[in-house]
Every structure is written in C-alpha cells, then in structure tokens.
Design brief:
This protein is of the alpha+beta class. Helix content is 28%, strand content 24%. It is built from four helices and eight strands, in the order αβββαββαβββα. Strands 1, 2, 3, 4, 5 and 8 form a six-stranded mixed beta sheet that branches. Strands 6-7 form a two-stranded antiparallel ribbon. Helix 1 packs antiparallel against helix 4.
C-alpha cells in the first residue's frame, strides 16, 4: 500500500470517528424530564424512610407509624429526596397517649429548599414541621396529614398538590432537568433546534457535522487520486 493510500485510510478512519461522535451528540438528550411534587414516605417500627407503595388516600398507617411528605423535583423514585428529618415516632408522639378507638401517627412535612420551589414562590420559613396526629384507627395517611398540616389542596385525580398552603398553585408540573445537574428548578422548555421544536440537535451541531463530512470526503478523494 502506498503512503498516499495509507493516508487515505487514516483520513477515512478519522472521518468515521467524527461521524460516530456526531451521531452520539445528536442522539444524546439535551434534557431529562422531571416533576415537581409532594412525594409520600412511610416508616414503621423505627425503620428508615421507604417510598410508599400506595397513595396517602389509601394507605392506612398503624399506631406508632410515621408518614413523611417531601416537596422536591425528581424524575423517579430512585432519585426522589427523602424527608430530611428522621422518622422519630417517640420524639414526635412520645407525649401523646392514644385514646379509645384511636391511633397515633407521627407526621413529617418537608417543604424542600429554594431550589425545589416553583417559580415565584418561596418555601415556608420553617421548611420541616412535625406533628402527632391522633385519628381513628381506620384513618388514612391523608387524614393524619390533614390533622396536623391543613389546609390540603388536591387535584381532580386526588393527588396532593399543596400542604399547609404550599405551594399555592400548580400540581406535579414537569420541569427541565439538565443532564448531570443535581436538581432542576426551571419550567420545562423544548430543546433548542433549527426549527424551534424540541427533541433534536441544534443547527450549529448539524452544520458542524456537515463541514466535518465535507472536509473528510475531500481529503480522502485527493489521497486516492494522488496514489
């Protein structure tokens, strides 16, 4: 193989590598969708917080259990923030005795930080509050919450949108979460693209890729004809 042909092969390989890189850039999502909402947590027998498998309107904690609610931005149960206060039943309800036909449920409400707040809203001055709800034995977690942190705001699907008046508006909005960023606070917007519609690479990326292909193709053509 002549020197010029070797150069052509190397240039072809370099161009192929550029193509693969460009394809990776074009395929990579610019944003990952997340949601801003009140997540629901449970603890029994002093165990750590566990993400609830039922909604608060159907879950029925037992006497001595702890329920927690945390307002934050997340894209799934794996990265949802837990309440920052420990599920300490004795510390919250230790001084409360259960009456006949009643049960005690410790409630933790964590409103999150400024990074979790919806645009135009500010978290309560005291972001974490606790209370001991003394409710009837068949009461749900939502009823225990209402006993210590009213008013509650729901949407038409019975999803808790606001606790103790926070936030005042909205319910489970989708937000834009930049890849690699720990938390997102901005309202979702389409990814930048040549046509102004979300989901595609930008015009600059495509134009740069076209230039790489054109230069690489010209170099290969010259190298072949020199040989």
């Amino acid at each position: 193989m002549t020197v010029s042909r070797r150069r052509g092969v190397r240039l072809a390989g370099a161009t192929a590598g550029a193509l693969l890189t460009l394809a990776g850039v074009a395929a990579a999502p610019a944003q990952a969708a997340g949601y801003r909402y009140w997540s629901f947590w449970q603890s029994d027998d002093g165990k750590p917080w566990a993400y609830a498998t039922q909604g608060p309107a159907t879950a029925r904690p037992a006497d001595g259990d702890v329920v927690g609610f945390r307002f934050a931005v997340s894209s799934g149960t794996d990265d949802t923030s837990r309440p920052s206060a420990a599920p300490d039943f004795a510390g919250i309800c230790g001084a409360t005795a259960a009456g006949d036909g009643a049960k005690r449920v410790a409630v933790v409400v964590d409103s999150g930080g400024p990074e979790d707040a919806p645009p135009g809203e500010t978290p309560p001055p005291k972001p974490v509050t606790t209370g001991c709800a003394e409710v009837r034995r068949d009461a749900t977690a939502a009823e225990a919450l209402a006993a210590v942190a009213a008013p509650l705001r729901y949407d038409s699907a019975a999803m808790i949108c606001g606790i103790a008046g926070y936030p005042a508006r909205g319910c489970g909005e989708q937000v834009a979460e930049q890849t690699g960023a720990p938390t997102a606070t901005a309202t979702a917007a389409p990814a930048a693209s040549s046509g102004g519609e979300g989901g595609g690479p930008s015009l600059g990326v495509l134009a740069g890729g076209a230039a790489v292909l054109a230069l690489g193709g010209a170099a290969i053509w010259k190298a072949r004809h020199r040989g």
